[in-house]
Structures are given as structure tokens and as C-alpha cells.
């Protein structure tokens, strides 16, 4: 299946989920993440949930990271350049919703991409080879190409993988892992 068809399919599947299902599945994903050997690392990039898109609720992961006293990095998007600026999440971080309903930091302490150890990656679909389909703007592909080679890329999904994505391009960055409520895929 191609990316356009996968986007439609998985948006429709997400729309069928109730708030309770989203919460239960998101908690299951967070609990599965505890099985990873990543918690000694320092800088964790975490996307903030777009509730209107029925994304994985990352609040549970945020609580794990805060409980482990890790550095949490959140981003602000520039839709003209398709770049993300990364900021350290602190008690003083102020947020506002952008025009796409994404909560973003207004400003703060900027964190260079080279410091990121783990990036939790949002997605609509992924395949058994670690390729992912996002919303199509390339923000995470741009971010991940600038990260260190050893950065751990973890996708979060409510659903199991497709066999393959037909129209993967050279600019697409593969995941290292994808976590679902039912398990962990390693690529």
C-alpha cells in the first residue's frame, strides 16, 4: 500500500478509537517502553500529543521520564522550513497551540540535535522493515537525519505493522523500534 492510502486507512482506524481505548492503549505502550535498555540515557525527545488526531497519549511517557529525572526535549515546528527547534522541558516552559493544534513551547533553553539520545517518533503507520508514514511534511525525517548515528528512534503506534510501504523514498528515515500495546518490533 502507498503512503496516501495508509494515511487514510490509519486516520480512519484511529477515529474509531474511544477516549478510553486511547488511554488504555497509550498506557500499555508506556509500560512496554519500560522493557527497553534506554533509561540510562540523558536526552529524550518526546512529541506532545495532538488530541484531535487521536495520537498516542505521551503523558504517561512524560511521567516515566520525569520520574527517572531525565532531560525531556520538546519541539517547535517551522512550517515554512519544515524544521523543528528543540527545547528543554522545564517547570518554566510555557506552551501554546499552533494553527495545527500542536502544543509547542513558546521559547526556552534550546537543545542541540547532537545531544538527543532517544527520539520518540509519532506515526500513522509503519511496516515490518521499520519504515514509517507520518503526516507527510517530513519534520521527523529532517530531525532524524541531523541526529547522531547512534540515536535510538522509537515509533509509537496503536496498530501492528503493514507488510511493506510501497513508496518509501531515500529521504525516509527508518525506525529502530516500534512499540504497540501488544509488543515491540525491532528493525
Automatic annotation (TrEMBL):
Its EC number is 6.3.3.2. ATP binds at residues 3-7, 132-140. Substrate binds at residues 50, 55. GO terms for biological process: folic acid-containing compound biosynthetic process; tetrahydrofolate interconversion. It comes from the Bacteria. Its cofactor is Mg(2+). Gene3D superfamilies: NagB/RpiA/CoA transferase-like. It catalyses: (6S)-5-formyl-5,6,7,8-tetrahydrofolate + ATP = (6R)-5,10-methenyltetrahydrofolate + ADP + phosphate. The keyword Magnesium applies. Keywords: ATP-binding, Ligase, Magnesium, Metal-binding, Nucleotide-binding. GO terms for molecular function: 5-formyltetrahydrofolate cyclo-ligase activity; ATP binding; metal ion binding. It is an enzyme of class 6 (ligase). InterPro entries: FTHF_cligase (IPR002698), FTHF_cligase-like_sf (IPR024185), NagB/RpiA_transferase-like (IPR037171). Pfam families: 5-FTHF_cyc-lig. The keyword Ligase applies. Belongs to the 5-formyltetrahydrofolate cyclo-ligase family. PANTHER family: 5-FORMYLTETRAHYDROFOLATE CYCLO-LIGASE, ATPASE INHIBITOR/5-FORMYLTETRAHYDROFOLATE CYCLO-LIGASE. This is 5-formyltetrahydrofolate cyclo-ligase. It comes from Flavobacterium dankookense. The lineage of its organism: Bacteria, Pseudomonadati, Bacteroidota, Flavobacteriia, Flavobacteriales.
